[in-house]
Design goal:
It is built from 6 helices and 23 strands. By secondary structure, the protein is mainly beta. This is DUF1618 domain-containing protein.
């Protein structure tokens, strides 16, 4: 009987959580009103092994001379340095993560208003028989200051479990949903990328050596798999593909870089499940003109979540690059002090209501 009452209570709280989510601006309206201000990342040296996480503090790269000069210097010393790392960016907020022996700790902050909140530790049940997979911001109430919704994903055996967090009246609470019944984890957790990609209204996680990505619908909290289009996957074997949005209309798209040939395909404009190959271009000449980069080194980092029409390209020991698919220009991503942009690079937009205060 106690288990039944707990299940009913969980369903009621979940409905409350989803109801509060729907009261926030929708993904479409947010996209229409938000403004790209720049990108956050952890800068790193080009001499550093590319797969080793940088210990540097997060920095902000303004999009233009007119963009605000933001920083996280308002956070406590451990959060503003290497203790916390960037984990997600959404609706004018940043989600930062600190790994501890007892599980991850999360901090949410607004770099514009300089408000921040340290989330309480997840319940012990989250890690007593489960492993941390990921976390993400879901929504923010318009004009609320720092009222937000977030989700943490853990895995128990082959079942995913969602832990929901929401803030209100200066407090943050966690709600654990039952492990998924109709969705199974079909890959080793070590293959999963911890940070999500936000595209076309859903959240996605890339899985190494896999032809599908993990998807979460933030409106219904439904989990599913989305297979990469055949034009990206089938004839390339196991390419490094990435998911994102087309810059003009925000359609879901996939891109792959193999043998320095960049392919990008997007969901059909009619909204069906068909995929259309929109770009296929060789970058050999671009790399030859810019550097003595060995042919086998580049791989795709991400499609710019800022919808600038660029993709980010990573290399072993040769730096980090951006390629503009409209102009064909390849640029080295370096900071003013000679370091390079770290991976991942988080696009930072203004809040959906046009501000963050």
């Amino acid at each position: 009987m106690a288990a039944v009452r707990a299940s009913v209570a969980a369903r009621r709280l979940t409905r409350r959580f989803l109801s509060s989510f729907f009261s926030s601006p929708s993904a479409g309206s947010a996209s229409a009103s938000r403004t790209l201000l720049g990108h956050f990342h952890h800068p790193t040296s080009t001499a550093r092994p590319v797969l080793v996480r940088s210990a540097s503090a997060p920095v902000f790269q303004p999009l233009s001379a007119g963009s605000p000069r933001l920083s996280l210097d308002f956070l406590s010393a451990d959060a503003a340095t290497s203790e916390f790392s960037l984990f997600d960016s959404h609706v004018g907020l940043l989600l930062l993560l600190k790994a501890t022996d007892a599980g991850p700790r999360f901090l949410v902050c607004d770099p514009v208003s300089r408000r921040h909140a340290l989330l309480p530790s997840l319940p012990a049940a989250a890690f007593s028989d489960g492993e941390f997979l990921s976390a993400a911001l879901l929504s923010r109430a318009a004009g609320s200051g720092l009222e937000f919704r977030a989700v943490c994903l853990t895995v128990q055996a082959d079942r995913l479990r969602l832990w929901l967090a929401w803030s209100g009246d200066g407090e943050v609470s966690w709600l654990g949903l039952p492990p998924s019944r109709d969705f199974r984890v079909k890959w080793p957790l070590s293959w999963s990328e911890k940070r999500c990609v936000r595209a076309a209204g859903s959240l996605y996680w890339h899985i190494s050596n896999n032809d599908s990505v993990l998807a979460l619908d933030p409106n219904t909290l439904r989990l599913s798999y989305l297979r990469a289009p055949a034009v990206i996957w089938d004839d390339l074997g196991f390419p490094n593909y990435r998911i994102g949005e087309t810059p003009g209309d925000g359609r879901l798209c996939f891109a792959a870089l193999d043998s320095q040939v960049l392919r990008l395909c997007a969901r059909g404009a009619g909204g069906d499940d068909g995929w259309v190959l929109e770009r296929e271009v060789s970058l050999v000449e671009e790399f030859d003109a810019l550097t003595n980069l060995p042919m086998a080194c580049p791989w795709l980092g991400n499609i710019d979540p800022g919808r600038t029409g660029k993709v980010f390209i990573r290399t072993f020991g040769h730096g980090h690059f951006s390629y503009d698919m409209d102009t064909g220009k390849l640029d080295r991503l370096t900071t003013d002090d000679g370091q390079e942009y770290g991976h991942p690079i988080f696009a930072y937009f203004s809040a959906p209501d046009g501000g963050s205060s």
